[in-house]
Amino acid sequence: MGVLSKHHRQMKLYYHSETKIGRKTYAYAESSKKKLLGIDIAKTNVTGTQWAELAEGLGMPISELVNQDLPRFRESYGNNTTNLDDTDWLKILDKEPILLRYPILVDGDSVKMIKSGAAFKKYMEPDSAGLEKPYNK
User: Fold this and answer.
1) What pTM was estimated for this model as a whole?
2) Do residues 97 and 46 make contact, with C-beta atoms less than 8 angstroms apart?
3) pLDDT over 50 (residue 26)
4) Assigned domain for 1 exists
5) For residue 109, what is the domain's CATH number?
């Protein structure tokens, strides 16, 4: 990956603020101790190269970034998507970013698709880190 900058002290979250999962995931990410750069794809254009690098980091084809199960997708593009290539999928994400399947978290070299707001919890640092536990005495 080359265009996406990766910092070990800062997380990047690609999310859509008009989706419930996007808002919840962003709220959890904001409560983390790590610095957060929230990229609201409803307001910020993500380039085709960035989408391609995110898909590569996730180990999946670009088509898997798009929620093809949504009625909105089916109304616009139908059920037969077998003849769509990567360029077509990138155009879909550019034209209708709300179709992003799940928010994407970039944390250092790690790229994860966050499937629920609560799933983000496992990426957060525990609040009690460094405190002596009374039961360990």
Assistant:
1) 0.84
2) yes
3) yes
4) no
5) 3.40.30.10
